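Course assignment 3, question 2. Fill in each field.
Student: A.L.
Task: Predict the tertiary structure for the chain below.
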Amino acid sequence: MELTAQALVDILAVRWEVETYFEYGKDLLGSDQYQVMTRQAILRFWTLTACLFCFLEAQRAAAHEVTLTCGDVRRRLQQEHQRNLLQWLAEALQEGRSVDQICSQLAIEPGKVQG
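Answer field:
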């Protein structure tokens, strides 16, 4: 191939955008081991990532904080859901539900719970 230096830089810039998109998506999804070797796997990954970005961007816009990143929003949502789960567990235990009943509600086999 005979490319000018500028054409090569332009191609590398596009490649960099694709690579950083994949890395950012993998970081947000926590899917470091996700394989995108086939056309179908790439399509699935892009679809999932696009849906996630749309959701996180909508959440970020609703927060009205210009300095928030999508990663910040994801972490906030995870913390909120973890807190909600702990609140629900505390209430369930205060109401007298057994660990086995709670496991059943969470679709966890009671014998599989460690600790």
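Instructor remarks: Residues 2 and 63 are 49 Å apart (CA to CA). The mean pLDDT is 86.
Grade: pending
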